[in-house]
Design a protein that fits this description.
The chain is of the alpha+beta class. The protein has two domains: 248 residues, Beta Polymerase, domain 2, CATH 3.30.460.20; 55 residues, Methane Monooxygenase Hydroxylase, Chain G, domain 1. The chain is built from eight helices and seven strands. It has a seven-stranded mixed sheet, with helices on both faces. A hairpin with a 5-residue loop joins β1 and β2. The N terminus is likely disordered.
Length: 330
Protein backbone atom coordinates (compact mmCIF):
# COMPACT_ATOMS: atom_id res chain seq x y z
CA UNK A 1 0.00 0.00 0.00
CA UNK A 2 1.29 3.49 -0.84
CA UNK A 3 2.51 5.72 1.93
CA UNK A 4 0.42 8.77 2.87
CA UNK A 5 1.52 12.14 1.51
CA UNK A 6 3.78 13.97 3.95
CA UNK A 7 2.52 17.23 5.40
CA UNK A 8 4.27 20.18 3.81
CA UNK A 9 5.16 23.29 5.75
CA UNK A 10 4.43 26.86 4.76
CA UNK A 11 7.54 27.10 2.55
CA UNK A 12 6.98 24.05 0.36
CA UNK A 13 9.45 21.70 2.08
CA UNK A 14 7.96 18.20 2.05
CA UNK A 15 10.88 16.54 3.80
CA UNK A 16 14.63 16.87 4.27
CA UNK A 17 17.27 14.37 5.36
CA UNK A 18 21.00 14.38 6.01
CA UNK A 19 22.46 11.07 4.82
CA UNK A 20 24.94 9.46 7.19
CA UNK A 21 26.71 7.47 4.46
CA UNK A 22 25.73 4.12 6.01
CA UNK A 23 22.16 3.82 4.74
CA UNK A 24 20.58 5.98 7.42
CA UNK A 25 19.49 9.57 7.68
CA UNK A 26 18.36 12.31 10.03
CA UNK A 27 15.26 14.40 9.36
CA UNK A 28 15.71 18.18 9.54
CA UNK A 29 13.76 21.34 8.80
CA UNK A 30 14.37 24.73 7.19
CA UNK A 31 16.30 26.07 10.18
CA UNK A 32 18.89 23.30 10.07
CA UNK A 33 19.04 23.51 6.28
CA UNK A 34 20.18 27.11 6.69
CA UNK A 35 23.13 26.05 8.88
CA UNK A 36 24.03 22.87 6.97
CA UNK A 37 27.50 22.34 5.55
CA UNK A 38 28.99 19.48 3.55
CA UNK A 39 30.86 18.14 6.58
CA UNK A 40 27.57 17.04 8.17
CA UNK A 41 26.75 14.67 5.30
CA UNK A 42 24.84 14.72 2.03
CA UNK A 43 21.75 16.95 2.26
CA UNK A 44 18.55 15.79 0.55
CA UNK A 45 15.63 18.19 0.17
CA UNK A 46 12.25 17.24 -1.30
CA UNK A 47 10.17 20.25 -2.35
CA UNK A 48 6.63 20.79 -3.53
CA UNK A 49 6.48 22.68 -6.82
CA UNK A 50 2.84 23.54 -6.25
CA UNK A 51 3.93 25.90 -3.48
CA UNK A 52 4.49 29.50 -4.56
CA UNK A 53 7.75 29.99 -2.64
CA UNK A 54 9.49 26.90 -4.01
CA UNK A 55 10.44 28.47 -7.35
CA UNK A 56 11.56 31.66 -5.60
CA UNK A 57 13.85 29.67 -3.30
CA UNK A 58 15.28 27.74 -6.26
CA UNK A 59 16.02 30.92 -8.18
CA UNK A 60 17.39 32.96 -5.28
CA UNK A 61 18.87 30.61 -2.70
CA UNK A 62 19.55 27.19 -4.22
CA UNK A 63 22.68 28.19 -6.14
CA UNK A 64 21.55 26.24 -9.21
CA UNK A 65 22.15 27.45 -12.74
CA UNK A 66 19.10 29.26 -14.20
CA UNK A 67 18.88 26.64 -16.98
CA UNK A 68 18.64 23.90 -14.36
CA UNK A 69 15.98 25.81 -12.44
CA UNK A 70 14.00 26.31 -15.64
CA UNK A 71 14.21 22.59 -16.49
CA UNK A 72 13.21 21.53 -12.98
CA UNK A 73 10.22 23.87 -12.77
CA UNK A 74 8.92 23.68 -16.35
CA UNK A 75 5.31 22.65 -16.84
CA UNK A 76 6.33 20.03 -19.41
CA UNK A 77 8.22 17.35 -17.50
CA UNK A 78 9.44 15.14 -20.32
CA UNK A 79 12.06 12.64 -19.02
CA UNK A 80 15.54 14.00 -19.63
CA UNK A 81 18.98 14.32 -18.06
CA UNK A 82 21.91 16.70 -18.52
CA UNK A 83 24.96 17.90 -16.65
CA UNK A 84 25.08 21.11 -14.63
CA UNK A 85 28.62 21.67 -13.39
CA UNK A 86 29.41 18.83 -10.99
CA UNK A 87 25.72 17.98 -10.72
CA UNK A 88 23.14 16.24 -12.83
CA UNK A 89 19.61 17.33 -13.65
CA UNK A 90 17.46 14.22 -13.99
CA UNK A 91 13.72 14.12 -14.67
CA UNK A 92 12.06 10.70 -14.55
CA UNK A 93 8.45 9.60 -14.57
CA UNK A 94 6.58 6.99 -12.56
CA UNK A 95 3.07 5.61 -12.12
CA UNK A 96 0.63 7.86 -10.26
CA UNK A 97 0.09 6.17 -6.87
CA UNK A 98 -3.37 7.67 -6.40
CA UNK A 99 -6.21 5.07 -6.48
CA UNK A 100 -8.36 4.99 -9.61
CA UNK A 101 -5.79 6.50 -11.96
CA UNK A 102 -4.94 5.00 -15.34
CA UNK A 103 -1.51 3.38 -15.84
CA UNK A 104 -0.51 6.05 -18.36
CA UNK A 105 -1.27 8.85 -15.87
CA UNK A 106 2.35 9.32 -14.83
CA UNK A 107 3.89 11.78 -12.38
CA UNK A 108 7.35 13.31 -12.65
CA UNK A 109 10.18 13.22 -10.12
CA UNK A 110 12.57 16.10 -10.85
CA UNK A 111 16.05 15.87 -9.37
CA UNK A 112 19.23 17.88 -9.12
CA UNK A 113 21.96 15.64 -7.73
CA UNK A 114 25.41 16.87 -6.78
CA UNK A 115 28.33 15.58 -4.76
CA UNK A 116 27.04 16.88 -1.39
CA UNK A 117 23.46 17.97 -2.05
CA UNK A 118 20.31 16.48 -3.56
CA UNK A 119 17.21 18.46 -4.47
CA UNK A 120 14.09 16.64 -5.60
CA UNK A 121 10.82 18.25 -6.64
CA UNK A 122 7.36 17.08 -7.57
CA UNK A 123 4.27 18.86 -8.85
CA UNK A 124 1.95 16.01 -7.88
CA UNK A 125 2.33 13.49 -5.12
CA UNK A 126 4.69 10.61 -5.79
CA UNK A 127 5.49 7.90 -3.26
CA UNK A 128 9.17 7.68 -4.22
CA UNK A 129 10.34 10.25 -1.67
CA UNK A 130 8.48 8.65 1.24
CA UNK A 131 9.80 5.23 0.26
CA UNK A 132 13.37 6.47 0.24
CA UNK A 133 12.80 8.19 3.57
CA UNK A 134 11.38 4.96 5.00
CA UNK A 135 14.49 3.11 3.79
CA UNK A 136 16.67 5.69 5.51
CA UNK A 137 14.76 5.28 8.77
CA UNK A 138 15.52 1.52 8.65
CA UNK A 139 19.16 2.07 7.76
CA UNK A 140 18.62 0.60 4.28
CA UNK A 141 18.59 3.83 2.32
CA UNK A 142 21.06 5.36 -0.13
CA UNK A 143 24.66 5.90 1.03
CA UNK A 144 25.63 8.65 -1.40
CA UNK A 145 24.20 10.72 -4.27
CA UNK A 146 24.85 8.01 -6.88
CA UNK A 147 23.12 5.46 -4.67
CA UNK A 148 20.23 7.89 -4.24
CA UNK A 149 19.72 8.05 -8.01
CA UNK A 150 19.66 4.25 -8.12
CA UNK A 151 17.12 4.05 -5.27
CA UNK A 152 14.84 6.63 -6.89
CA UNK A 153 15.00 4.96 -10.32
CA UNK A 154 14.36 1.51 -8.83
CA UNK A 155 11.36 2.80 -6.91
CA UNK A 156 9.90 4.32 -10.07
CA UNK A 157 10.54 1.19 -12.13
CA UNK A 158 8.91 -1.04 -9.51
CA UNK A 159 5.46 0.39 -10.09
CA UNK A 160 6.05 0.62 -13.85
CA UNK A 161 6.92 -3.09 -13.89
CA UNK A 162 3.70 -3.87 -12.02
CA UNK A 163 1.69 -1.80 -14.51
CA UNK A 164 3.25 -3.57 -17.50
CA UNK A 165 2.60 -6.99 -15.92
CA UNK A 166 -1.03 -5.95 -15.48
CA UNK A 167 -1.14 -4.88 -19.14
CA UNK A 168 0.22 -8.28 -20.24
CA UNK A 169 -2.38 -10.07 -18.10
CA UNK A 170 -5.14 -7.94 -19.60
CA UNK A 171 -3.96 -8.69 -23.14
CA UNK A 172 -3.93 -12.42 -22.36
CA UNK A 173 -7.47 -12.20 -20.96
CA UNK A 174 -8.77 -10.27 -23.96
CA UNK A 175 -7.17 -12.73 -26.36
CA UNK A 176 -8.89 -15.63 -24.60
CA UNK A 177 -12.24 -13.86 -24.52
CA UNK A 178 -12.00 -12.99 -28.20
CA UNK A 179 -11.63 -16.68 -29.07
CA UNK A 180 -14.90 -17.64 -27.36
CA UNK A 181 -17.05 -14.52 -27.76
CA UNK A 182 -17.34 -11.29 -29.67
CA UNK A 183 -19.18 -9.06 -27.25
CA UNK A 184 -19.51 -5.38 -28.00
CA UNK A 185 -17.80 -4.50 -24.69
CA UNK A 186 -14.60 -6.18 -25.90
CA UNK A 187 -14.04 -3.44 -28.44
CA UNK A 188 -14.26 -0.77 -25.72
CA UNK A 189 -11.89 -2.67 -23.44
CA UNK A 190 -9.35 -3.28 -26.21
CA UNK A 191 -9.46 0.38 -27.25
CA UNK A 192 -8.91 1.47 -23.63
CA UNK A 193 -5.99 -0.96 -23.30
CA UNK A 194 -4.36 0.34 -26.48
CA UNK A 195 -4.66 3.92 -25.24
CA UNK A 196 -3.01 2.98 -21.95
CA UNK A 197 -0.20 1.13 -23.72
CA UNK A 198 0.44 4.03 -26.08
CA UNK A 199 0.49 6.46 -23.15
CA UNK A 200 2.91 4.32 -21.15
CA UNK A 201 5.24 3.91 -24.09
CA UNK A 202 5.16 7.63 -24.85
CA UNK A 203 6.62 8.29 -21.40
CA UNK A 204 8.96 5.30 -21.13
CA UNK A 205 10.73 5.70 -24.46
CA UNK A 206 12.26 9.12 -23.54
CA UNK A 207 12.97 7.77 -20.04
CA UNK A 208 15.15 5.08 -21.60
CA UNK A 209 17.03 7.75 -23.54
CA UNK A 210 17.41 9.90 -20.41
CA UNK A 211 19.00 7.01 -18.51
CA UNK A 212 21.41 6.31 -21.35
CA UNK A 213 22.52 9.95 -21.32
CA UNK A 214 22.78 9.79 -17.53
CA UNK A 215 25.21 6.87 -17.68
CA UNK A 216 27.29 8.68 -20.29
CA UNK A 217 27.93 11.64 -18.00
CA UNK A 218 31.19 11.37 -16.06
CA UNK A 219 30.83 13.10 -12.70
CA UNK A 220 33.16 12.17 -9.79
CA UNK A 221 30.46 11.22 -7.31
CA UNK A 222 28.67 8.82 -9.69
CA UNK A 223 30.88 5.78 -9.18
CA UNK A 224 31.13 2.61 -11.23
CA UNK A 225 28.99 0.57 -8.81
CA UNK A 226 26.09 3.02 -9.11
CA UNK A 227 26.65 3.19 -12.86
CA UNK A 228 26.33 -0.61 -13.14
CA UNK A 229 23.10 -0.57 -11.14
CA UNK A 230 21.76 2.26 -13.26
CA UNK A 231 22.66 0.31 -16.40
CA UNK A 232 20.57 -2.60 -15.12
CA UNK A 233 17.64 -0.27 -14.51
CA UNK A 234 18.07 1.22 -17.99
CA UNK A 235 17.99 -2.31 -19.42
CA UNK A 236 14.75 -2.91 -17.53
CA UNK A 237 13.32 0.24 -19.06
CA UNK A 238 14.37 -0.99 -22.51
CA UNK A 239 12.72 -4.37 -21.87
CA UNK A 240 9.61 -2.57 -20.62
CA UNK A 241 9.43 -0.55 -23.85
CA UNK A 242 9.81 -3.77 -25.84
CA UNK A 243 7.09 -5.43 -23.73
CA UNK A 244 4.80 -2.48 -24.41
CA UNK A 245 5.52 -2.75 -28.14
CA UNK A 246 4.62 -6.43 -27.95
CA UNK A 247 1.45 -5.71 -25.95
CA UNK A 248 0.46 -2.99 -28.42
CA UNK A 249 0.92 -5.35 -31.37
CA UNK A 250 -0.96 -8.16 -29.61
CA UNK A 251 -3.81 -5.79 -28.77
CA UNK A 252 -3.93 -4.67 -32.41
CA UNK A 253 -4.07 -8.29 -33.60
CA UNK A 254 -6.77 -9.05 -31.02
CA UNK A 255 -8.78 -6.07 -32.21
CA UNK A 256 -8.42 -7.19 -35.83
CA UNK A 257 -9.51 -10.70 -34.85
CA UNK A 258 -12.52 -9.28 -33.01
CA UNK A 259 -13.41 -7.10 -36.00
CA UNK A 260 -13.14 -10.13 -38.28
CA UNK A 261 -15.37 -12.21 -36.00
CA UNK A 262 -17.97 -9.45 -35.79
CA UNK A 263 -17.85 -9.05 -39.58
CA UNK A 264 -18.30 -12.79 -40.04
CA UNK A 265 -21.25 -12.77 -37.67
CA UNK A 266 -22.80 -9.91 -39.60
CA UNK A 267 -22.22 -11.69 -42.90
CA UNK A 268 -23.79 -14.88 -41.54
CA UNK A 269 -26.82 -12.92 -40.34
CA UNK A 270 -27.21 -11.17 -43.68
CA UNK A 271 -26.82 -14.49 -45.49
CA UNK A 272 -29.60 -16.10 -43.44
CA UNK A 273 -31.83 -13.12 -44.06
CA UNK A 274 -31.13 -13.47 -47.79
CA UNK A 275 -32.14 -17.15 -47.71
CA UNK A 276 -35.34 -16.33 -45.83
CA UNK A 277 -36.09 -13.59 -48.35
CA UNK A 278 -35.49 -15.98 -51.26
CA UNK A 279 -38.00 -18.45 -49.77
CA UNK A 280 -40.74 -15.98 -48.92
CA UNK A 281 -40.43 -13.68 -51.93
CA UNK A 282 -42.37 -16.03 -54.30
CA UNK A 283 -44.95 -16.58 -51.59
CA UNK A 284 -45.38 -12.85 -51.15
CA UNK A 285 -45.72 -12.44 -54.91
CA UNK A 286 -48.50 -15.04 -55.09
CA UNK A 287 -50.43 -13.74 -52.10
CA UNK A 288 -50.14 -10.19 -53.44
CA UNK A 289 -51.39 -11.32 -56.83
CA UNK A 290 -54.37 -13.13 -55.29
CA UNK A 291 -55.21 -10.11 -53.17
CA UNK A 292 -55.94 -7.67 -55.99
CA UNK A 293 -59.54 -6.45 -56.11
CA UNK A 294 -60.47 -7.07 -59.76
CA UNK A 295 -63.09 -9.23 -61.35
CA UNK A 296 -62.40 -12.70 -62.60
CA UNK A 297 -60.43 -13.93 -59.58
CA UNK A 298 -60.72 -17.75 -59.54
CA UNK A 299 -62.19 -19.47 -56.48
CA UNK A 300 -64.05 -16.44 -55.19
CA UNK A 301 -67.26 -18.42 -54.81
CA UNK A 302 -65.58 -21.71 -53.80
CA UNK A 303 -65.51 -22.22 -49.96
CA UNK A 304 -62.47 -24.54 -50.28
CA UNK A 305 -60.39 -22.17 -52.38
CA UNK A 306 -58.68 -20.54 -49.37
CA UNK A 307 -57.51 -23.87 -47.98
CA UNK A 308 -56.39 -25.02 -51.42
CA UNK A 309 -54.29 -21.85 -51.81
CA UNK A 310 -52.79 -22.33 -48.30
CA UNK A 311 -51.88 -25.93 -49.18
CA UNK A 312 -50.27 -24.80 -52.43
CA UNK A 313 -48.29 -22.10 -50.64
CA UNK A 314 -47.14 -24.59 -48.01
CA UNK A 315 -46.11 -27.04 -50.70
CA UNK A 316 -44.23 -24.29 -52.52
CA UNK A 317 -42.44 -23.34 -49.27
CA UNK A 318 -41.37 -26.94 -48.71
CA UNK A 319 -40.19 -27.16 -52.31
CA UNK A 320 -38.16 -23.96 -52.04
CA UNK A 321 -36.65 -25.04 -48.73
CA UNK A 322 -35.77 -28.41 -50.25
CA UNK A 323 -34.03 -26.69 -53.15
CA UNK A 324 -32.05 -24.56 -50.70
CA UNK A 325 -30.93 -27.64 -48.72
CA UNK A 326 -30.18 -29.56 -51.93
CA UNK A 327 -27.91 -26.75 -53.10
CA UNK A 328 -26.35 -26.72 -49.58
CA UNK A 329 -27.02 -23.05 -49.17
CA UNK A 330 -27.76 -23.58 -45.47
Amino acid sequence: MDEPEPTQDEQGLVLAEILDGRGGGRSIGWEEIGTWDAGQGVLWMHLNLAHAETREWLESHSGLHPASVEALTADASRPRSFRDGDGLVVILRGINPRPGTEPDDMVALRMWVGATRIITLRARFTAVATRVQADLSRGEGPHDPGDFLVHAAESLMGRIGEAISAVDDTVDQLEDETLVSAGADLRTRIAALRRNVIGLRRHLAPQRDAMKLLMAERVPWFDDVSRVHMREIADRVTRSVEDLDSARDRAAVTQEELTTRLSEQMNQTMYRLSIITAIFLPLGLLTGLLGINVGGMPGVEDPLAFWIVCALLLALSVLLFGIVRWRKLV
